[in-house]
Amino acid sequence: MAKYQCGKIYIVYNDIDTEFYIGSTCAELDSRWHRHILGYYSFTYDGIGGLKLYKHMHKVPNFNRWHIHLFEAYPCNSKSELLNREGFWIKRLKPTLNINVPSGKYYKDRPKRISDSIAEQLEYDKEMCDLAEKSLMALNMDL
What we know:
Helix content: 40-55%
Order of helices and strands: EEHHEHH
Shape: globular
Number of helices: 4
Strand content: 5-15%
CATH class: Alpha Beta
Distance between the termini: 33 Å
Strand order of the largest sheet: 2-1-3
Number of domains: 1
Structural class: alpha+beta
CATH topology: GIY-YIG endonuclease
Largest sheet: 3 strands, antiparallel
Radius of gyration: 16 Å
């Protein structure tokens, strides 16, 4: 449980185009980025294995052009909560390099982050969407 108190949502993007990826982790972002680089090297272009992200990284292969950015610090209590939040942002921002939205057993029990009040949850989500929009605009990315 303590591990998920370090939960975070991150965005991976490059400075060539507007393609981006949203992910979640409890690891430090540098560590998560190194795991993405390993994924890039293990990706085979025959379509077996890997993510859409890795395929696109092969099109922009200079790692200096790629960036990982903390999108939202999201301390929570479980993998389910973290994946729910990742799924929320994927549905909201529609990143071009994600293949799946976390769903099924992880998404059906979406947690209430502020309280049990749906109105307060919607207000919190609206505030976070506004912050996300400002963050993406700062990165010169349009929704």
